[in-house]
């Protein structure tokens, strides 16, 4: 999936594991950009008595690069603090939580948000309460109200939210990692089965979301609000990280850990599925610890992606043109590592410079679409992925089709994509709570009481 369990070590540390990053112009406030980073993957709603929460020992950050160096020019830092109100009960809540500051919520969490630009650090908000998780109909009877109370207004028209939401990503994980199978194309697979619709593997799961909405002119290199998409100042790069202290000591007397030393990055995420399916297993943990500016080390895996070589093998006779293509994948290199330069797609560019780096690239001069196409740029909608990433963008299908060769003609007109390249997909669709039309846009999280555990089969 996008980045839910993408590397061996971070999969053992879900509190610091980033799952998805989104960056788009606000459809409700087009003069603003919304930056979203999700963490703590695959949360079953019915997970009491110790429900999910942000880590007090983790530094969460969303970074913006605007000078073409693939280094953070602006960072938004989030630090959390949790307390226990009643130390004589095992309960997460001792009665219905009707208000975000109710004493019945036994484990409230709050946070601070800071903006870092160069040597200047500005505190934008402190002691901002998170909402509780969605425990169920009795414990959190009006969850929409609680979530709404956790949307905080900050100076200059900024907004911020940190708390549990429904996972906005969708993918047929069970099929894709079963030898690269795509259920709608099961019959064409090397090991054929009957064709069927895809299954959303993250249905009913929640994540923890950090979302911040800021004015466009706060993110551009010259403090402007660009209107010309071809302007070099109109494109920004975005990624998220999580960091931990270098040392951790367990106190046997208190049964708690204490952290020491400098912050060290343990997780990062820019483009969806980059570390998941581009970076080899042996490199994944190292990739998570590095800065995007050092990604030249990994561009060989983009120029010659493993999945592009597997598709013709797994689907015999379906991708003959892709199998015969022996050039470097300059199309994927542009999409994932530099942004698309001017002259490739008429009237569009999101080029951030020659430094190869995994970042979401958003051209802030392109207005939100009145009729968003989930296939984004390849579907004729320049406001969608890979121009930033919206919640409704079907990034799995977009990236599968790109890897299958659909985007090669952008840089090599002599190549003719296989017919299947324009049709291939995993067949899944978004099935969690409806997305919202206003900040923070992600759907309300599934409730514990409301959850109906699914079934599994061994054969």
UniProtKB/TrEMBL annotation:
Domain of life according to the entry: Bacteria
- Pfam families listed in its UniProt record: DUF4331
* InterPro entries in the cross-refs: DUF4331 (IPR025566)
Q: Where is this region: Disordered?
A: 426-459
Annotated protein name in UniProt: DUF4331 domain-containing protein
Species annotation: Nocardioides marinisabuli
